[in-house]
């Protein structure tokens, strides 16, 4: 991408309306624009990050055996009357009428609709287990939308729904999602810590929220410090195998939000020097709900003995549009955002220090083409602008590596590489610059983790 042809409306001043650093930086870096309370446009730079986050989620969902589809945002109220939630949901639900005066709603979640799809097509125990997911916009009329896309009214959600014959099957489905979530957040450069959450009237221990630690998090969390550095299950984890050992291993270390905190247990289970109390951002929630929807909506399959069985379900949410600011909360400095490679809008930016100078332009064009050929996501700052402004932009938008080239370096046949995260600079022969960046980027892409 050539910056001269791109749309990157960066702001010089820090916007007054933003209270937390991720919101400030997303506005300053030209990633989002507010359209109404809790409603945002994703500008090109922000949208690239959102798409990378979605891609990682999709890869890990697919790897876990879940199958992607897409359901509409507007739903018929009748489905929600069947489950009994139409009246129960309250003011967070945005209700609308179509021209025939039929009640519709903008989906805050999709249990009813997916159960309707399931009951239409799935009739036999042979078709189970099944896990269907989509990534779709949701609307919840939050009392206090705030912190930009962290808590907005219209937001993106990955929601998966599992269907199994019985509780044992549903438990295996739950474990598969548990492991997929650990891997998903890790691949984004985050530590997503599973915390015991409320399972409401269903009870049991199959409700976990995943939290990213950050000072600006809305939840108070209490955990065993070893959870922060715990190694993630490897890619060759066989998802057909029993994953209960991984689940037990992770959940044997105490972690809970204040809503679930059992102070006595926190003290007895966690040695004093390992007790961590911090703030957390909820980025995901996995939940077993049994027959809560399949019962009233009559989602049944025929069992091996010909009898009808009401299926057991769970739902599994992740908030991609909340994850983008969560990554920024976890990774920034005074100059701006510091993107982890896997979610960076561009992996490298090439800074031409003297656009308009024929030799420098020619050398940069060649480098830019080589970056593309090396499979790197590159942004070429070819603008006719002062060097200081280019450095500030590159730092603000957080591209992990900068290749800097001007007439002086060119004369000596040398380019400079700046590492955004550490500030480290290296000077090396022009011919080696692209290969050097490739060798830095590739191991961090985490697509094989
Ligand atoms: P919260 O307690 O933060 O309101 P929730 O319990 O209502 O979240 P779920 O219904 O479990 O959230 O939704 C699944 C995921 O969707 C959450 O873990 C979060 O990542 C995301 N999410 C929920 N509400 C919002 C919102 N208003 N803005 C952005 N993301 C959201
Ligand atoms: Mg909520």
Task: Please describe what this structure looks like.
The chain is α+β, with helices and mostly antiparallel strands. Helices cover 31% and strands 27% of the residues. The protein has 13 helices and 23 strands. Strands 3, 7, 8, 9, 10, 11, 12, 13 and 16 form a nine-stranded mixed beta sheet that branches. A five-stranded mixed beta sheet has the order 20-19-21-22-23, with helices on both faces. The chain has a three-stranded antiparallel beta sheet with strand order 4-6-5. The mean pLDDT is 95. The protein binds adenosine-5'-triphosphate and magnesium ion. Residues 140, 142, 151-152, 155, 157, 282-285, 317-319, 321-322 line the site of adenosine-5'-triphosphate.
SSE layout and pairings?
Layout: H1 21-28, E1 32-36, E2 39-42, H2 44-63, E3 67-68, E4 74-76, H3 77-83, H4 85-88, E5 94-97, E6 103-106, H5 111-121, E7 130-139, E8 154-164, H6 167-187, E9 192-196, E10 207-213, E11 219-224, H7 244-251, E12 255-257, H8 263-269, E13 275-290, E14 300-302, E15 308-310, E16 312-318, H9 320-330, E17 332-333, E18 336-337, E19 348-352, H10 358-373, E20 378-381, H11 387-397, E21 401-405, H12 407-412, E22 414-419, E23 425-429, H13 433-441
Parallel strand pairs: 3-7, 19-20, 19-21
Antiparallel strand pairs: 1-2, 4-6, 5-6, 7-8, 8-16, 9-10, 10-13, 11-12, 11-13, 13-16, 14-15, 17-18, 21-22, 22-23
The structure holds adenosine-5'-triphosphate and magnesium ion.
Adenosine-5'-triphosphate binds next to strand 8, strand 13, strand 16 and helix 9.
């Amino acid at each position: 991408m050539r910056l001269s042809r791109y749309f990157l409306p960066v702001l010089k001043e820090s916007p007054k309306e933003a209270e937390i650093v991720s919101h400030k930086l997303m506005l300053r870096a030209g990633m989002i624009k507010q359209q109404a309370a809790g409603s945002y446009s994703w500008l090109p730079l922000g949208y690239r990050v959102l798409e990378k986050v979605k891609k990682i989620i999709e890869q890990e969902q697919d790897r876990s055996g879940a199958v992607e589809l897409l359901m509409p945002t507007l739903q018929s109220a009748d489905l929600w009357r069947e489950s009994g939630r139409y009246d129960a949901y309250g003011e967070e639900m945005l209700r609308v009428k179509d021209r025939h005066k039929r009640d519709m709603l903008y989906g805050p979640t999709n249990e009813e609709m997916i159960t309707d799809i399931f009951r239409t097509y799935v009739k036999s125990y042979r078709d189970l287990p099944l896990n269907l997911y989509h990534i779709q916009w949701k609307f919840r009329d939050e009392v206090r939308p705030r912190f930009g896309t962290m808590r907005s009214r219209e937001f993106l959600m990955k929601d998966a729904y599992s269907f199994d014959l019985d509780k044992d099957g549903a438990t295996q489905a739950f474990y598969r999602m548990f492991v997929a979530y650990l891997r998903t957040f890790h691949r984004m450069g985050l530590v997503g810590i599973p915390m015991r959450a409320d399972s409401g009237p269903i009870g049991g221990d199959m409700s976990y929220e995943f939290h990213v630690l950050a000072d600006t998090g809305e939840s108070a969390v209490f955990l065993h410090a070893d959870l922060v550095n715990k190694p993630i299950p490897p890619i060759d984890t066989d998802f057909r195998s029993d994953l209960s050992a991984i689940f037990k291993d992770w959940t044997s270390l105490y972690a809970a939000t204040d809503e679930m905190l059992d102070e006595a247990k926190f003290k007895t289970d966690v040695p004093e020097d390992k007790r961590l109390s911090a703030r957390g951002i909820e980025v995901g929630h996995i939940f077993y709900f049994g027959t809560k929807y399949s019962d009233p909506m009559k989602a049944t399959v025929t069992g091996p003995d010909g009898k009808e069985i009401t299926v057991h379900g769970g739902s599994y949410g992740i908030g991609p549009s909340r994850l983008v600011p969560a990554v920024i909360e976890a990774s920034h400095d005074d100059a701006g955002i510091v993107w982890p490679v896997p979610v960076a809008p561009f992996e490298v930016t090439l800074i031409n220090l003297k656009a308009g100078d024929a030799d420098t332009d020619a050398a940069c064009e060649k480098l830019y083409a080589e970056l593309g050929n090396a499979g790197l996501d590159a942004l070429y700052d070819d603008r006719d602008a002062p060097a200081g402004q280019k450095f500030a932009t590159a730092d603000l938008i957080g591209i992990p590596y900068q290749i800097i080239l001007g007439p002086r370096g060119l004369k000596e046949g040398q380019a400079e590489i700046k590492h955004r995260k550490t500030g480290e600079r290296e000077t090396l022969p022009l011919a080696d610059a692209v290969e050097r960046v490739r060798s830095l980027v590739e191991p961090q892409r985490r697509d094989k983790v």
